[in-house]
């Protein structure tokens, strides 16, 4: 059975949040996350929003096997039956993008980033500092990933309960876009005992969960939203 956790940015209007809760209450397998975040683009709050839903899902009576996280404006390209078949073929492994080398965007984590609010609008954004960030914990090698993937139940339990995962989460608080570091680093490192992980060369593993077209790829696309076609 599918269960759906909705994470809503606290910056939405009270009317929108009430409407979302009412809609969720109409469906027995849909609920709004018990903890909502004030989401800052590329900030820690994006990752925390997922983790709050993960915690809620683990408490849910349905014993699900995989979590697939996705943005609110992304739509499935496969039927539910096809998705189930694909997850069965994954056979207890995670489907997480892995990128190594300079493509990891090391400028995102080698120095610390600060949150700065616009004095007029109050909008918060991340700005880089010249302060060198300490190496990641546990001899982990950073692996860039997508913010989205398919995670086994064991992996979800690991990221919420394991000390190494907690240490990496704490380390990620001052990096840019930690949601594009956290999953991949835990999944692909030999030093990480994450269930469902892959310890080979990340580039040799196909990633299936999400498909995006970016403007700079110059591929046919009718409409881009937030500079990405999903």
Automatic annotation (TrEMBL):
InterPro entries: Glyco_trans_14. One of its GO terms (molecular function) is acetylglucosaminyltransferase activity. Pfam families: Branch (PF02485). Transmembrane segments: none annotated. It comes from Lymnaea stagnalis (Great pond snail). This is Uncharacterized protein. One of its GO terms (cellular component) is membrane. Belongs to the glycosyltransferase 14 family.
């Amino acid at each position: 059975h599918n269960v759906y956790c909705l994470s809503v940015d606290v910056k939405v209007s009270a009317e929108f949040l009430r409407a979302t809760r009412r809609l969720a209450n109409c469906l027995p397998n849909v609920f709004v996350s018990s903890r909502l975040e004030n989401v800052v683009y590329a900030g820690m709050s994006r990752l925390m929003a997922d983790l709050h839903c993960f915690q809620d899902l683990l408490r849910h009576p349905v014993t699900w096997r995989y979590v697939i996280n996705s943005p609110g404006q992304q739509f499935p390209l496969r039927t539910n039956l096809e998705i189930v078949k694909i997850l069965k073929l994954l056979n207890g492994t995670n489907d997480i993008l892995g990128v190594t080398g300079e493509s990891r965007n090391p400028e995102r984590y080698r120095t610390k980033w600060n949150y700065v609010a616009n004095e007029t609008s109050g909008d918060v954004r991340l700005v880089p500092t010249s302060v060198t960030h300490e190496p990641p914990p546990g001899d982990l090698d950073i692996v860039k990933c997508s913010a989205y993937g398919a995670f086994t139940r064991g992996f979800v339990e690991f990221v919420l309960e394991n000390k190494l995962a907690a240490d990496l989460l704490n380390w990620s608080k001052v990096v840019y876009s930690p949601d594009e570091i956290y999953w991949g680093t835990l999944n692909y490192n030999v030093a990480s005992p994450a269930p469902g992980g892959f310890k080979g060369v990340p580039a040799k593993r196909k990633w299936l969960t999400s498909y995006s077209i970016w403007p700079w790829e110059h591929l046919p696309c009718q409409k881009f939203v937030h500079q990405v076609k999903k």
